[in-house]
């Protein structure tokens, strides 16, 4: 049986900060990255949480991989249209900086279109949508993934693109916002890794093996010979993945995934559209109609075996409350991988374990 640890969120943040300092990260960068990763765990997205740190360590060692302490660069500036370059830096930091600039422009102009490329793993895109709704802005994100292909196209039998996330954030005034954030694959690649580390099987229809045959074994998404994850919703998920690659990759990042990749790096391109809804409607009809619709939808009688209709973002908020109280579950295999990565960077692993309450 796989052993699971339950870590306090603040303690886990401090431990991951210590690991990231071993990467060469300055304190502020280590803090931002660790906060972002732990928040992903808190909201139930373990695929985008601290378990990705070993992958970052591998990318850091690559000549054209992750770069620490990178600075955001402006390539194009038309006021309400921005073209930005992430200088191969941590997506948690570069993405935060890019969103701050874009939000300032949207506040000035009423909208902003921001194209961001050459940035390492942006992690949970919902975090950037949450930044937008906190400023009462609508956010739409199309994201491409430049790494080893891991998702098969509809009617295809091998991997041709990444999980290509799509995200929308919609503020609803004094009510909880809508945060729709999902991979266009039927399951995020990180969740395949989590299932593998926990010794769990995938559900039927999620995975193809290296010969293109259906399998429930997550090993084909983690170790060679690699297979492929399926797109969600058959042709619909594939269609949205295609759009994300064209907008997030070809347009925003000026680079698409169109040949085999062997590197461990994870680079993203992101096209973000920010809209100030108050510029359209100063009489608050948007909020009145939005509230009426959400209330109408949630009034639907619960389906058998369910607790009722949940609006996008609600499950994450509920999970966060539970994990803040009960701790963040990290399986022993994942934690050992983090410790091994820390050791490879010369980090004092006894100190890292001590920070989360584990004995040497």
Short description:
By secondary structure, this protein is an alpha+beta fold. The protein has helices spanning 9-23, 27-42, 53-61, 91-109, 126-134, 189-198, 235-253, 285-298, 314-326, 332-344, 349-355, and strands at 4-7, 73-77, 81-85, 111-120, 138-146, 166-172, 175-182, 207-208, 214-215, 228-229, 267-275, 328-331.
Care to describe what's here?
- It is a single chain.
- By secondary structure, the chain is of the alpha+beta class.
- The chain folds into three domains: 1-61 and 327-360, Malate/L-lactate/L-sulpholactate dehydrogenase, four-helix barrel (Hypothetical Oxidoreductase Yiak, Chain: A, domain 1, Orthogonal Bundle); 73-185 and 231-312, Ribosomal Protein S8, Chain: A, domain 1 (2-Layer Sandwich); 190-224, Hypothetical oxidoreductase yiak, domain 3 (Wheat Germ Agglutinin (Isolectin 2), domain 1), CATH 3.30.60.50.
- Helix content is 40%, strand content 19%.
- It has eleven helices and twelve strands.
- The strands form three sheets. Strands 2-3-4-11-5-6-7 form a seven-stranded mixed sheet, sandwiched between helices.
- The longest helix is centred in the N-terminal third of the chain and has 19 residues, at 91-109.
């Amino acid at each position: 049986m796989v052993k699971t640890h339950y870590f306090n969120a603040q303690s886990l943040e401090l431990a991951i900060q210590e690991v990231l300092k071993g990467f060469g990260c300055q304190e502020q960068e280590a803090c931002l990255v660790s906060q972002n990763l732990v928040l992903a765990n808190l909201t139930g997205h373990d695929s985008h949480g601290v378990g990705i740190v070993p992958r970052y360590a591998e990318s850091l060692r690559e000549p054209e991989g992750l770069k620490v302490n990178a600075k955001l660069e402006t390539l194009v500036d038309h006021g309400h249209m921005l073209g930005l370059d992430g200088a191969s830096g941590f997506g948690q930091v570069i993405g935060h900086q890019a969103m701050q600039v874009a939000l300032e422009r949207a506040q000035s102009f009423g909208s902003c279109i921001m194209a961001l490329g050459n940035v390492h793993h942006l992690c949970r895109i919902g975090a950037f949508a949450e930044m937008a709704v906190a400023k009462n802005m609508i956010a739409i994100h199309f994201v491409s993934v430049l790494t080893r292909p891991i998702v098969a196209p509809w009617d295809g039998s091998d991997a041709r693109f990444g999980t290509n996330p799509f995200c929308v954030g919609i503020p609803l005034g004094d009510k909880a916002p809508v945060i729709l954030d999902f991979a266009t694959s039927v399951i995020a690649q990180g969740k395949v890794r989590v299932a593998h580390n926990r010794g769990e099987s995938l559900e039927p229809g999620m995975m193809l093996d290296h010969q293109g045959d259906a399998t429930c074994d997550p090993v084909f998404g983690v170790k060679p010979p690699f297979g492929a994850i399926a797109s969600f919703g058959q042709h619909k998920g594939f269609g949205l993945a295609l759009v994300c690659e064209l907008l997030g990759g070809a347009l925003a990042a000026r680079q698409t995934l169109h040949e085999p990749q062997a590197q461990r790096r994870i680079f993203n391109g992101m096209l973000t559209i920010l809209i100030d809804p108050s510029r359209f409607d100063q009489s608050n009809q948007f909020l009145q109609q939005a509230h009426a619709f959400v209330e109408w939808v949630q009034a639907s009688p619960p389906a058998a075996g369910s607790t009722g209709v949940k609006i996008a973002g609600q499950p994450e908020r509920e999970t966060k409350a539970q994990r803040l109280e009960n701790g963040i579950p990290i399986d022993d295999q994942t934690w050992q991988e983090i410790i091994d990565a820390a050791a490879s960077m010369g980090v004092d692993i006894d100190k890292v374990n001590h920070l989360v309450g584990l004995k040497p």
